[in-house]
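Design a sequence for this backbone.
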């Protein structure tokens, strides 16, 4: 619930405020997540790859928060994001990543968020972040 409220707002602000360097960093992060997703789908060293994917996914969402350039919202979100390192969350997320449909869906959703941020389209960034979180909620809970 916290993520559903905070992340769309952060994504919208990131679309408006991200620097060129931050936009490049987000693009590289999505590319890295795509490569990890491909490794998960291939079945190569899947448990280790899933663990790495989860950490890089957490960092991607945190980086969007940084790009919003709103210290208060980022501080609040950092606490929420840190919870993504907890055993309970990691167990649910790794179970979700065992389903190839989810791996593909998450990749498409991350791309959509990134594209909206790169286009500096705040409304689309908010919408795509919300969509991603709704899908995540449906696939994990």
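Sequence:
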């Amino acid at each position: 619930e916290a993520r559903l409220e905070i992340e769309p707002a952060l994504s919208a602000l990131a679309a408006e405020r991200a620097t060129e360097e931050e936009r490049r960093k987000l693009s590289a992060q999505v590319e890295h997540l795509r490569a990890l997703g491909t490794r998960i789908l291939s079945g190569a060293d899947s448990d280790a790859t899933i663990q790495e994917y989860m950490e890089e996914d957490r960092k991607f969402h945190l980086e969007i928060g940084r790009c919003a350039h709103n210290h208060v919202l980022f501080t609040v979100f950092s606490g929420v994001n840190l919870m993504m390192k907890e055993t309970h969350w990691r167990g649910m997320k790794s179970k979700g990543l065992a389903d190839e449909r989810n791996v593909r869906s998450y990749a498409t959703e991350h791309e959509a968020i990134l594209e909206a941020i790169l286009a500096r389209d705040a409304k689309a960034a908010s919408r795509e972040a919300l969509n991603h979180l709704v899908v995540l909620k449906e696939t994990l809970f």
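The chain is about 85% helix and 0% strand.
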